Amino acid sequence: MSTALKILVPVKRVIDYAVKPRVNSARTAIETAGVKHSMNPFDELSIEAAVRMRERGTPAVTDILALSAGPPKCVDVLRTAMAMGADRSIHVEISDAEVKEKGELEPLGVAKLLKSVVEKEERNLVILGKQSIDDDSNQTGQMLAGLLGWGQATQASKIEFEGDNVSVTREVDGGVETLRCPLPMVITTDLRLNEPRYASLPNIMKAKKKKLEKMTLQDFGVDDGRRLKTLKVEEPPARQGGGKVEDVDGMIKKLKELGAI
Fold this sequence. Notes:
InterPro entries: ET-Flavoprotein_bsu_CS (IPR000049), ETF_a/b_N (IPR014730), ETF_b (IPR012255), ETF_beta_N (IPR033948), Rossmann-like_a/b/a_fold (IPR014729). By secondary structure, this protein is α/β, with parallel strands linked by helices. The protein is 28% helix and 27% strand. It has one domain (5-257): 3-Layer(aba) Sandwich (Rossmann fold). The protein has a 9-stranded mixed sheet with strand order 9-8-7-10-6-1-4-5-11, with helices on both faces. A two-stranded antiparallel ribbon has the order 2-3. The protein is globular and about 65 Å long. The model has no long low-confidence stretch (mean pLDDT 89).
């Protein structure tokens, strides 16, 4: 008999993917005031993956827990996660003032927090986005697996269960790779894994009645110290416009001038 799944899905509130980020006037960070935010797209894939596992019914999923750490407005993405199908959620609240003073939690700090949640909530599967689109670190899942001593499969494009083993297909340079790992494990999701569902109005209303627990880093015994400091943030240089050539010979000549050939 397969082991029942108790899934943890971390979600992050980020600037909406359709918004063009702007550097603030002090050139210390990206401007977030008055900017539309939403759930990190890779985390939407993770919620969808967990809900589909429960819908398949094999193995049985007994609980899907969504978690977010950050300012009070992170509650919005947790409500969305529960409207998509998560059973309950935890908001580890970090005040706006603390975020402004210290910056957001770094990947290692998030991994330590998730480790504590896994142990306290007795999770046996963690599904999280391979990266968040604001810092693009792509580190938290790997660090969490290392701290827990669990197997990991990153950038999953397909997930299948074979008893207590999980087969994960991931895209690599020149093809695909399939990994097989026993539970418990950490999986990070990639864009080809699924198409996240929209939260319907009835499910949005139901989500308001689901449990959302507020906690702090201290409740989990996590050190919130930051080890990295952003010195300067700049816009990328503007791309130069292209030029026209009359024929193939002209193109070859131009490429030679540019040192491309």
